[in-house]
Structures are given as C-alpha cells and as structure tokens.
Write a structure and sequence with these properties.
By secondary structure, the chain is α/β, with parallel strands linked by helices. It is 42% helix and 14% strand. It has 11 helices and 8 strands. The protein has helices at 18-25, 46-52, 79-85, 95-100, 105-117, 130-134, 138-149, 178-196, 198-203, 217-221, 238-256; strands at residues 7-11, 36-40, 59-62, 89-92, 121-126, 161-164, 205-209, 228-231. The chain has an 8-stranded parallel beta barrel, surrounded by 5 helices. Strand 7 (205-209), helix 10 and strand 8 (228-231) form a beta-alpha-beta unit. The longest helix has 19 residues, at 178-196. It is globular and about 45 Å long. Bound molecules: 2-phosphoglycolic acid.
Length: 257
C-alpha cells in the first residue's frame, strides 16, 4: 500500500489581476505545508508568481501546454519553455479546453508525452458531461479518455496526476457527493491498474475537481482514492483556498502517524 501525498491545485483560469492572485496565496509565504500545493496562473503571470512565492513551498503549474515543440505556431507555449520558466506541473485536457478549444484525447496524448519528456508533471483532466452522466455512460467515457490520452505513454506512477472533473460540477456549485466521487475514483484506479499494473496505479495521485470549496473539501479528501483537489473559483478566495489547503495538510499529517 502506497501513501500518496495529498495535493491541492489552484486553477486560476483567465482571472487576475496579479494583485488578486498574490493576495489569494500570500498566507503561504514562509510556511511549511505537509500537503503539496500548486497554483496555475495565466502564462503571463508565471514569472511574477514564482518570484512572489519564492519563500514558500508552493509550486507553479501551467493551465495548458502546446502539443508542438517549436516552430511557426503563433500564440503557443512549449513544455520546454514552461519548464524553463519554472513550472513543475501542467494541466492537460481541462474540459474548458476540450469544449471551447477543440482539444481531444489525441491532442492530450501528445501533450502528456511532451510534458513528461520535459519533466513537467502532467495533470490529465477527464470527466463526463451531464448528458453522458444521465445516459449512464460515465465509465465508458472515462475509460476511453484514459486509454486514448495515455496510449503508448510509459508511466512510473509518481510522474503524473489524473484529475476527475465531471463537467456538470465545474463552476456550478453542484459538486459530486464524496461517495459518488470516491466510486468514480476507485473505478479510475482500477482502469489504471489494467493499463499499468497495481504498483504504478497505486502511486498515481487522483484529484477531484468541480465546485470544491472549504465546506466540502474535508469529506472529499477523506475518501480513500481521492488524493487531492483541483480548485477553480474557490482558489481565488484566500479564505477558502487556505482552508482547503489546511484540510489537505491535516490529511497528510494523519498519513505520517
Ligand atoms: P470550479 O472549477 O472549482 O470553479 O468548479 C474547477 C476547474 O475547472 O478546474
């Protein structure tokens, strides 16, 4: 049985300005947290955020990465550039990117490979939409997302995170219940066991995302297969974000005893 270090990732999306983002993480400066904490600012703020957080243990992630390495791809940012800029993580295949920017499992697969090749930890986002949930095809959707996005990718387990984000829960205030989230996370770990074997699957951290806030974080994090949370809206609020991270720290400390 592996212990997986709890992880909280803030997805700040297209929100700013820099002052607001700094305020939401100011309380982390000079503090030790047993849980891993990552913030994903808009690209343009990565450097400033790294500087602002230099006396903290908070990591920086990107919200996306190009599937291209270099060349004539206007507006793109490569995995190598993100690594050079100081990122340690990158979100891949967030549902907003899938629905609004035509990303699909095939593009996610290339991005995961690029991230791994550049020693960025990919946070692969998967999840069903409302219609798929109502048609009871959630498991089929997730299996396909995992198989296609990870096709041909070799993993050790501690080199990737998978975020389960049901699309119907994102930004709606309607989070999945801890029990339903646990059931789905358990299923995802089973699928990863089929793909990579039990030892690797036990090491992969699975995050839940979708309307996480300071009130539901504890119950979600206490589920056996939920190792972390991907937080959108509530990560912009210093009070909520700190409380969510504190819950993860309590969870991490409980693992140490
Ligand atoms: P939310 O967003 O917490 O605002 O629902 C989560 C996400 O999109 O990652």
């Amino acid at each position: 049985m592996h212990t997986r270090r709890p992880i909280i990732i803030a997805n700040w999306k297209l929100n700013g300005g820099l002052d607001l983002l700094c305020t939401s993480v100011a309380s982390f400066i000079g503090k030790h947290h047993e849980a891993e904490i990552v913030v994903c600012p808009p690209y343009i703020y990565i450097r400033e955020m790294l500087n602002f957080l230099r006396h903290s243990e908070v990591f920086i992630g990107s919200q996306n990465v190009s599937k291209f390495e270099s060349g004539a791809y206007t507006g793109e940012t490569s995995a190598q550039m993100l690594k050079e800029a100081g990122c340690e993580f990158c979100l891949i295949g967030h549902s907003e990117r899938r629905s609004m920017f035509r990303e699909n499992n095939a593009s996610c697969q290339i991005k995961v490979a690029r991230a791994l090749a550049n020693k960025l930890t990919p946070v692969l986002c998967i999840g069903e939409n409302e219609e798929q949930r109502d048609n009871q095809v959630t498991k089929d959707v997730l299996t396909r997302q995992l198989e296609e996005s990870l096709e041909g990718i070799e993993l050790t387990g501690d080199d990737i995170c998978i975020a389960y984000e049901p699309v119907w829960a994102i930004g709606t205030g309607n989070a999945a219940s801890p029990e339903i989230a646990q059931e789905v996370h358990q299923f995802i770990r089973q699928e990863l066991t089929c793909l990579y074997g039990a030892e690797t699957a036990q090491k992969i951290r699975l995050l839940y995302g979708g309307s996480v806030n300071k009130n539901n974080a504890k119950d979600l994090l206490s589920q056996q297969d939920i190792d972390g949370l991907l937080v959108g809206g509530a990560s912009l609020d210093p009070d909520h974000f700190l409380a969510i991270c504190q819950q993860a720290t309590i969870q991490a400390e409980a693992q140490l005893v």
